[in-house]
Structure formats: C-alpha cells, structure tokens
Amino acid sequence: MRDTVFRETTAEPRTQSVPLSHLSLELGHLYMEDFEAGPGRLREHFAEVRIWVDAARASAARRTGGKRPRISTCFLIDDYFTRFSTPAELVPVVLAEAEKAGLVIDYLARESGCAVADRIELAESVMHRLVESPPPGSYGSRPPVSQTGWLANGQRTPATRSALSDAKAWVPPQETAARNHSVFMDAELWSEKDGRRLWSCPFLAAVWQLARLGLLRHLGEPVLTPRPWDGAGFPPDWDRLPPLLQLNPAATPFSAYRTCTLMPNRFLAVEDAVRLILDQVDVDSGALKQVAERSAREGAEVPAAVAQRATYVFYEEPTNSLTTEGT
Amino acid sequence: MTTASGQSARPVLACGEVRTCLLPSFQPLDGRAAAQLLRLRADEQVRVSERPNLYALSPEVLTGIDCRLPTSNGAKVRAVGTVAARAALTEGRVLQATAHFSAPAAGPDLRRPWGDYLVRPGLVESFGKLPEQAAAEGALRGGGRGELDLGMIAEGLLAQLLRHPLLDHKAPFKSRRTHLRWAARRVPPGEAPSLERFTLAEDGLRTVELKVPEDTPTAAVAGLCEDLALHDWLLTTVVHMLDNSRLGAADGPSAVLALRPAVDHLLHLWMPRAHVDRTLGHLWDVLEREPGFTRQWRNLVQRIRDQLAVQAIPLLHQALSTR
Questions:
Q1: What is the mean pLDDT of residues B272-278?
Q2: What is the top-level taxon of the source organism (chain B) (predicted)?
C-alpha cells in the first residue's frame, strides 16, 4: 500500500526515546540522620556498599553474555522531607567518601526532584496513572484511589458499623494474589497538611524507580533529564542544584533496563511499598515498548512487569560504634 | 512465564461499547478547548486533527476488572485484565466515549501478579478457554448483574468529562444518547476484514458484528465503530428533529426555528471514514449499499433545505411587495 501523502503531527502519538544503560546502580540514599552521624557513617556505608557493587556488576555482566555491561551509578539526597546542610557543604564530603571506597558516583539526584522537576509535577502525573489491582468481583466500577490516598494489595477490612447496629464479626483483610494466606499491605501515598500535599517516601521512591527505568515522559518528552556539572563548586542552596546532576562526564546513560538499589535493611518495608505501587502504575506505553524492544535487541530482555525490573540488596546497617572515628 | 503468555496472548476477540452524545455546550469547542477537555492525564497529549474535520482523541485510561464475562449460553467465564477507555470529540460538537478490550483464546487458571496485566493494556484474559462465540454474543447483549459492564465504564468516562468546567451545559437543542456495542472476531492476518451485521435496536441501542484480521490494532477497530456510531447518531438525531418539527403542519417561523439547529450544528458533520484506519474504511461500503446511510442523510439534508426555501418564499414576496 502507498504511504500516506498527508500527515498531521498533532494527530500522531509520539514518545521520544531516552538513552539506556544495562543497569542503574544506586549507591545510597542519604537522610538527615545519616548526615548527622558524621562522615564516619558515610565511610562505613560506602565500604559495605562496595562489596555489593562488585556483586551487582558481576550479575549484570552475566546477563549481557560476557559483553561489558553499561552501568551507571547514582546517589539520592533527601531534600524533600527535611532540609539539612547545603550542597556546597555536603556533596564534596559524599564524593570524597565514595572515592575512598573506590566508588564513582555518576549521577546525583535530589529527592524533591521526584515530586517536581523543572516545573513538571512528576509525582502528580504518576498518581494519575495508578490503576488499582481489582479484587475479584470488580466489573467496571473504578475505585477512587485519588480520593483515599492509600493503595493496597487486596481488600481492606470493611469499616465497622456504628455502635447502635449489631456487632458485626470482624472480617480480615485479604491480599488479592494471596497463596493460601494473605500478606496484606496498605501504603499511604500522600498526606495533606495546611492544604499542601506531602508525598510519601515510598511514592517518591516509586517515581525515582520509574525515572531510573526510563519510563517517565511528559507529553512524550523525557523528564528528569541529567544536567552536566561544570566541575566548579556546588551551590549554597538545594533549590539551585539541578534535580539530576551528571557528575561524571564519561558515565553511561542514567536510565537503564534494570535497577539495583543498595540500602540498609531498615528500608525493606518502604521498598516493599514501592513494589506495590510500581505493580499498579500504568506506565507510558510508548516508553514501555521502546525499552522492551531495545533490551530484546541487545539480548538483555527485561521482565514484562515493571516491578520485576527493580532489584535490591539490603545490608546490615553500620552500628554507631563502627562509625566512630579511628576504628 | 512471560514469554509463554506473550504467545498465548494473541487476541481472538475484541469487544467494545461506544456512547455518543451532543456536547452540552452552547458553542462548539475549538481545537485547543477540545484538547483541554480530553486531557485525561496531565502527562499525555491529546491527539488533535484539523483535516478533513476537527477531531480530538484522548489518551486511553485503564480500568482493572476481575469478574464474569457476559455469555449468550450462560457459561460462567471469569476474566481478569484491563479495559481501555477513551473519548473523542468531533467538530467540537459530538462527544463519544468508548470502552473496549481484547481477549486471547485462553488464559491461566491462576490470577497473575497485577503488573503483568498492566503491561498489556486493554487485554482481558479468561480463566481457561474463552468460549469465543458465546462471549461475542454476550458482549453484544450486554452485561448482567456482576458481569463485565463496558457500558458502565464508557458512561463513567462520559460523566467525568461532562463535569469539566469548560462546559456550560447549555446544549443548543435536545437530543438523545445512543450506544453502540461491537464485537470483532479475529481472523488470520491477510484475510479481509468484514462488517457482518449492523443492527438497529430500540432505546438507542445499536450492535455491530465484525471480522477483523489479528494484526489490526483494537484501537483501529474502536475507531471504525466510533465513526459508525457518530454517523448513526447524526441520522437518528436529525430524523428525530424533522419528526418534531411537524413539517407542513407547522407554520413558517416555528418550522424554521425547529430546523435551525440542524443547519447550525449538524449538517456539516457528515463525513464517513474521516478518521478511520485505512485498512478498515471500506467496511462502510456495505452500509452505503444497504440501507444507504449517506443516501438517507442526503435526503434529510435536502428536506431541510427545501423546507427552509419554502418558508423563505413568503418572506421574499413580502419584501418585494413592500418596495
């Protein structure tokens, strides 16, 4: 058949592709308490992480069939829930401690960039893409996730009746995909305070995972794209630091087919909630298709489900005795 | 598991329901406003065409379902997956919402993790084998209690759009909604698509049975059915308007008043297959032969124009005699 003569660009769907590595390796996630514990804590963290970085690299190499995998590293600093220190003060310390452990941080991100980056409301957009897992019996009525602000992996215990009505027997919650017994989980996505929406840590972390997996777009264009660092100092204010900064000019692309996140085991519950969220996000189908096709072409086919593309290493947290100087 | 599911996921059936109504707005919406109305997601663009007519199409939104499929023989088939819904606005005047899904010949006996369904939007898998014929007929009949209800999903989307602050709810004339249910059986690639049956039922219900090659996207089939629904709605609405105008019986000015909205808002909308996938456009031909949609439309338009001309003659006389 002959090609079309007439075209209208506004009538055609378009999704711009993004460059992709094989693996996006997160070397850490810094909160205020970690920073307050002093540089010794960071040193312990990176020393521990180094071991798992080597393992993650080996695992990625196995998947690419001996070819050298493209791996980019990233580090996330929380400037959303608590503001502490300044980039000028903090970032050089982080980079120095990583270097001592023989690690290179390719990309540095701010947590608030997962909420809003370059005036685009990323978290809000992802929220509108939630499609809840339907419990059996759902025949088309859409559960209003956007009203409750909670997302579960099954059916909640029904609300208790008023005191006047007959006492009802308690009904347990039920996990939809339960095997024999339920592990029910209900994650808070946001809270409202003084009319402002505060996104929860798991929700922002889910946005972060989608960014690392190259699956976020705004009107077809990539978002949270890395800005190169000029090599000069870091600004005295977090807001003046780009949401995603490329520190290493030689780094492979930020986004990747898969992610691996290295973190202390106290984050286990948060990351379980992240998987719960990722499992219920209807991501941009154009981006999804691009990633699937390109990974298959490279012989590193991604798992179909988005949540399956994220892996974790949870390690034992350094104790304070270890972090004291001079050990 | 995922590669195995990819092979078995070849759809054998696609079903949908289109609801068509007049946009409740005094003025038709221009392209920009149409895009605003249909922006179901902040991060995804609305597709807007200006040729050969103004047409805006929303992104698709998903609804998760886990329930029985309606079947004509009463077979109980549980199905899980996502139904896709989208909305279209033609010439800023006629609003349509469609809910549709595709189904493979068979699915696993266990529910998969939800993320596996979400990466195949608009696909609904039956537990075990899908009784194709019974499910196709069931879809045309509509869902019973607790069964998949595509009409409800389409209606829900329509209701959401009608709450948009852009709309003043001052429709220029009264009209009824129509709903068109369709079922497309899949045939091997290379075979010609065909329109097997178009049924005009009561209460604004229409049903369409199709055969479509496997490699034709479901969205293209949905587009064809929206086009059929749009033009059927135009015929239905203008016929109704002529009925109510009591042609001949009514005195001049009232007949003119009754027919004026057709001239202002509807007569320019007739444009079959304007935005239909090229491989499916010719499915219109069978309806043009019998009953002859365009033939009926031309006849209606001619009647309206004649009527307005007849009413204009006395005015002309008057004007000449008072010179």
A1: 95
A2: Bacteria
